[in-house]
Write a structure and sequence with these properties.
- Its EC number is 3.6.3.29.
- InterPro entries: AAA+_ATPase, ABC_transporter-like_ATP-bd, ABC_transporter-like_CS, Mo/tungstate-bd_C_term_dom, ModC_ABC_ATP-bd, Molybdenum_import_ModC, Mop_domain, P-loop_NTPase.
- GO terms for molecular function: ABC-type transporter activity; ATP binding; ATP hydrolysis activity; molybdate ion transmembrane transporter activity.
- Keywords: ATP-binding, Cell inner membrane, Cell membrane, Hydrolase, Membrane, Molybdenum, Nucleotide-binding, Translocase, Transport.
- Helix content is about 20%, strand content about 35%.
- By secondary structure, it is of the alpha+beta class.
- The chain has two domains: about 220 residues, P-loop containing nucleotide triphosphate hydrolases (Rossmann fold), CATH 3.40.50.300; about 120 residues, Beta Barrel (OB fold (Dihydrolipoamide Acetyltransferase, E2P)), CATH 2.40.50.
- The chain has a six-stranded mixed beta sheet with strand order 7-8-9-3-10-11, sandwiched between helices. Strands 2-1-4-5-6 form a five-stranded antiparallel beta sheet, with helices on one face.
- A hairpin with a 4-residue loop joins strand 13 and strand 14.
Amino acid sequence: MANVTNRQSPAASRLTLQVEQQLGAFQLLAALDLPAIGVSGIFGPSGSGKTSLLRLIAGLERPIRGTITLGEQTLLNTQQGIFIPPHRRRIGVVFQEARLFPHYLVRGNLAYGMRSPAPQRFAEIVELLGIERLLERMPGTLSGGEARRVAIGRALLSEPQLLLMDEPLTGLDDARKNELLRYITRLTQQVDIPIVYVSHDAKEITSIADHLVVMKAGQVRASNKLDALLQRFDLTHELGGFDAASLLEGTVIAHDATYDLTHLALDDGHQLVLPGISAALGRRLRVRILARDIALSLVPISGTSYRNQLSATIVDNTILPETPYTVEIRLAIGTFTLRARLTRKSWDEMGLKQGMQVTALIRSVSFSAC
């Protein structure tokens, strides 16, 4: 299926902002310059200001001062008295609740926001979100995941220059959450507009984001490419703590039907063996490896259940105040970096140090389509 585009040049949709908002005792201060393509994740705990920031971008609230631009259009400039209302911002918004019109069929809900008749675009988005069989149903008969897919479709059919998603998986059970996340992942690969995705779930946001913004207490703690932030020791607590992870990307090159395994070639020539998946040869996968699922050996070993052993160099290490019994480690493996975690006792007994060659033993790997 061809990409579903908004008929806009991606370069026209770069989002930049500098805003200040006061909500009772809570103060939001944020300055961001987000990429014009891909998914920018806004991550942080409840109360960090994520949704407040999204509402300012959408025009649902006004800051006490600041500027917001989308491409070449100024959406807000408090000093110059500029405020473009929400309905003129060309921004699609998907809330935590689907907010569908209860008296319209799904088909009518989808068509409501369309700027002009576009049968081909309608069909493309319906197919992309897997909602063909829902078109003649009423919203009250839909599951939570189905209703949110319809809400996403309605937002896309308004031909936005930017799509905002505010914790769309909240309140769903695990099965519906995983199903909707698969559709959203597919969406992020095929729509040609930038997406800002808000979540407080580290695993969820690392599954789909390209760029990451970390918020805490109303301020931007960090903003950079996702893989770069995942390697920062000082963000370990914010980005999952015990579940700190690294992301790698690779291409499916073979399937082992006898043992139900899939072989993935990483971009630097290394390979990983994964549990068997039904992915076509040549398909790209994003691989997530938890730091706690990596062990180190001084030499390659045999007679082990570890299927993945990669030659690595220790490039950095630290002991975090919140976990003084462990050592956080960064490993260089070819052209990519991998996080690992050992007990201090293991680090000392093995005589490990920066610059040392080791073998990284990877216990398990999770993945999502790229």
